[in-house]
Amino acid sequence: MGTDRIEKQVLLRAPLKRVWRALSDSTEFxxxxxxxxxxxxxxxxxxxxxxxxxxxxxxxxxxxxxxEGTPFEIEIEEMEPECLLSFRWHPGxxxxxxxxxxxxxxxxxxxxxQVADGVMLTVTESGFDRIPLxxxxxxxxxxxxxxxxxxxxxxxxxxxxx
Amino acid sequence: MRLRRGSSTxxxxxxxxxxxxxxxxxxxLVRRLCHAGPMSITRLSAGANVTxxxxxxxxRVMEGAGLVHSHRHGRESVWQLDQxxxxxxxxxxxxxxxxxxxxLARLRSFVED
Lengths: 162, 113
Known about the structure:
The complex is a heterodimer of chains A (162) and B (113). With 162 residues, chain A is of the alpha+beta class. Chain A has helices spanning 16-24, 26-33, 58-64, 133-161, and strands at 5-12, 35-37, 46-51, 71-80, 84-89, 106-115, 118-126. In chain A, helix 1 crosses helix 2 (26-33). The N and C termini of chain A lie far apart (39 Å). The relative contact order of chain A is 0.19. Chain B has a single domain (14-112), classed as Orthogonal Bundle (Arc Repressor Mutant, subunit A), CATH 1.10.10.10. Helices cover 57% and strands 12% of the residues of chain B. The longest helix of chain B has 26 residues, at 87-112. The N and C termini of chain B lie far apart (63 Å).
């Protein structure tokens, strides 16, 4: 059916060390991802954090306000320096009224490969077929509005950075 | 093989679709129909740890949600998935996929700065 897994690949024109720090340092990870973590990433650790709003666009910040402070938790599985980071989480787990702790998690894997132009980063997230469909429907509803402005935000951000 | 559509399901909200799938037995039925294609009620019941009547009941619930439909083949009902309605699961994945695109765009800005 092809609904269990997502795979993304992106070429990052930056040194391997730099990319690894952006992934393995929880503060750095949080700053691009939009989460403030309470602790560092260590294999086997459950790292708690909270969703934080972006500072890039006031309109988006207003929208994200509703999720700001929402607890967020990931469980680190593997860390191989400059090579692999994997963790488990509850995808789309942003409803404060829902206890996600008993629900199945998905596995996220970041793998890094040094290439001529920089670093080829592959991200896979798998295990979606185990997520209750009712939850999937909810995530979809939640994000339907979110996307449209998120896409605009990124565009703005990239154009601004270019 | 002559096919005849079962009862028409009409337009249903996706809420009932997801409610219809909130059950292990039904998910298992969907999984099997997904992997093996259309199946008779006899085959669907074989090896299941619930009765054929129970399976039929589950299938009827899913039919009501527009997830599956049946047609007669000889003396048997053959059930198959309504792929259209499973679109919701695919769209969910698209949502998550989009979020990754956005997150990776932010990562790129972050490390290429």
